[in-house]
Design goal:
This protein is an all-alpha fold and 191 residues long. The chain has a domain of 99 residues. It has 8 helices and no strands. It is globular, with a radius of gyration of 19 Å.
Length: 191
């Protein structure tokens, strides 16, 4: 992964992550969808396969997926300064919103209209998460590698039908990825 440390991109990186973070509700998977649309589709700073790899790393690392993704995208776009810029842009909106909400928590908690707005937002968040799943799943399908399809199907079955903890699924997928890479390198193939 080549780092394109271009300081002129830092303001655009900051305002992009600030905007994405300020108007994204629903957690890390939702923010990753918007990061993909901005940094892959619109700005072309990262390619689609690389974004898929960054998403996998962000999800499997400890901490908030949104911050992890900001760290990885920022590093990829601008090295260490890019990483700091992206993280700052990502954490400012939630910190400001949570600070504001904490001052008025009792009024928010008892307000029927706030509760209704939050219920409505849940439906929208579910749709955006489904979009992420379809987009990332489609990227795996485009690779035309049956082993990846088997891993994806097994992870889906383990999560939804066998109720296996997601941590074990991620660890198993990571181990499978390592095994496949070692297998491909020993066989002289490049994955």
């Amino acid at each position: 992964m080549e780092i394109t440390a271009n300081r002129k991109n830092l303001p655009k990186l900051f305002f992009s992550t600030l905007y994405i973070s300020a108007f994204t509700f629903g957690g890390g998977f939702v923010i990753i969808t918007f990061m993909k649309k901005k940094f892959v589709d619109e700005l072309h700073w990262i390619d689609e396969e690389e974004m898929l790899d960054l998403t996998a790393l962000a999800q499997s690392s400890p901490g908030a997926i949104a911050v992890n993704a900001a760290i990885l995208v920022g590093w990829r776009v601008g090295g260490f300064p890019g990483m700091l810029t992206a993280v700052l842009g990502t954490i400012i909106p939630p910190m400001a919103i949570l600070t504001l909400i904490s001052f008025f928590y009792t009024a928010f908690a008892a307000n029927l209209y706030v509760a209704l707005v939050l219920k409505g937002m849940q439906a929208g968040v579910a749709a955006v998460i489904l979009d992420v799943v379809c987009s990332l799943g489609n990227n795996v399908i485009k690779l035309h590698k049956p082993v990846y399809l088997i891993i994806m199907a097994a992870a889906f079955l383990a999560a939804f039908f066998l109720k296996v903890n997601v941590i074990y699924i991620i660890l198993a997928a990571a181990v499978m990825g390592i095994i496949l890479e070692v297998w491909n390198r020993k066989g002289g193939k490049k994955s």
